[in-house]
Amino acid sequence: MVKICCIGAGYVGGPTMAMIALKCPDIEVVVVDISKPRIAAWNSDDLPIYEPGLDEVVKECKDRNLYFSTEVEKHVAEADIVFVSVNTPTKTRGLGAGKAADLTYWESAARMIADVSKSDKIVVEKSTVPVKTAEAIEKILTHNNNKGISFQILSNPEFLAEGTAMADLDKPDRVLIGGRETPAGQKAVAALKAVYAHWVPEDRIITTNLWSAELSKLAANAFLAQRISSINAMSALCESTGAEVNEVAYAVGKDSRIGPKFLNASVGFGGSCFQKDILNLVYICECNGLLEVAHYWKQVISINDYQKSRFIKRVVSSMFNTVSGKKIAVLGFAFKKDTGDTRETPAIDVCHGLLGDKALLSIYDPQVTEEQIKRDLAMNKFDWDHPQHLQPQSPTAFKQVSVVWDAYEACKDAHGICVITEWDEFKKLDYQKIYDNMQKPAFLFDGRNVLNVEEMRKIGFVVYSIGTPLDS
Ligand code: NAD
């Protein structure tokens, strides 16, 4: 029986390995992590991440051919294929700080693999890493390798999107495998292909050289984020000219060369990947002397920051230029619907901006806990007007924040509502009831363009929807 071990039981390692276990009953899959609470949660009925369909798959496979363990070295030593799905955040200090990927976790995993291995292994880069990382990993794995072990490194980046991870893994647009062009490299590619071939049609499994696979993941995220920044840049122009961004997006997306997806104007993109991966791309370009290319990609992030700050300014200026002492309901805190993930969510920036103007926030998200929200808001944030200064978040700000478990409760007696996450339940709320229980004039700021502006205006709300000419 082939044995797979995945290092890192996070948003990628957990769901990805659960899908492999489901589709490949002949393969034993062990997901290991240094975090004891995370593994304990995977082994409980309360999984550490919320992802539609994940519970059912884990339930079916756990203790059949899917295991979660903190015995990292033991399971790595026993595995034929080792996936590495550890976090690769942006470096916060030293060379490349603020842009380059921090490969500390990756390097420590690679050194551990080298130390504990007693048999040949295929080592798979599942984490998103800078192009050429495999070269460094090869050096770490083969350095001092006097045990005669063969390590083959493959790049197999993950393209799942949180919120639809299980569906994406079940029917991926493509599976990408990059390997060395040597016979041993190609044998390793064939072995990994055989795993995916259990359920992925052959024409959806793409094989490339290592560097193309590594770079494709960064490129894919950069292109996706670029579309969002492009429509968001248009949304600002729509507001100034009387054009409607939803109509523009529809008309533009009807062009079959462009297509309709990822053209929803919003308060901005979030999540752990887009910004980090673009910064990483920018850094790689700079390291290769490609300053114009670096500048080009940097603008995708600048527009995203601009969009968030534009939203905050719009909220404050609409509410007579101050939100001090006013209750504002924040509907949604996760970076997108159907996930509890709050990494880099625009909600953090919006809340910080409003807290800075002394608003009283009442926050509701169906999947994010109070502890998580307060932890996120406790982090230091940039002041966009003076980006060179870090603004420490005052602990007294927490007196301005309450986290509630009901949207109606959040909106009761509020002066304004900010919709930050596009949860389906926010579309189905009784907005007449909400309006009746609010201070007047009642402001509604739709940061996801999920509500019908005309209907909301008919109820009596003063509405701001991204990319829609202002309510007069
Ligand atoms: P995560 O933070 O949720 O999980 C990473 C896990 O690795 C953590 O639980 C951590 O404890 C563990 N870990 C770190 N070092 C370890 C070590 N030496 N030994 C054992 N465990 C260790 O991160 P994630 O969201 O799953 O992302 C993982 C990688 O996948 C990143 O490179 C990310 O860019 C990439 N990625 C993420 C997504 C996404 O949607 N989250 C999508 C595609 C790719």
Automatic annotation (TrEMBL):
The active site is at residue 273. Residues 329-453 form the UDP-glucose/GDP-mannose dehydrogenase C-terminal domain. The keyword NAD applies. Pathway: Nucleotide-sugar biosynthesis; UDP-alpha-D-glucuronate biosynthesis; UDP-alpha-D-glucuronate from UDP-alpha-D-glucose: step 1/1. Its EC number is 1.1.1.22. NAD(+) binds at residues 8-13, 33, 38, 86-90, 127-128, 162, 273-276, 343. It catalyses: UDP-alpha-D-glucose + 2 NAD(+) + H2O = UDP-alpha-D-glucuronate + 2 NADH + 3 H(+). SUPFAM superfamilies: 6-phosphogluconate dehydrogenase C-terminal domain-like, NAD(P)-binding Rossmann-fold domains, UDP-glucose/GDP-mannose dehydrogenase C-terminal domain. Keywords: NAD, Oxidoreductase. One of its GO terms (cellular component) is nucleus. This is UDP-glucose 6-dehydrogenase. It comes from Physcomitrium patens (Spreading-leaved earth moss).
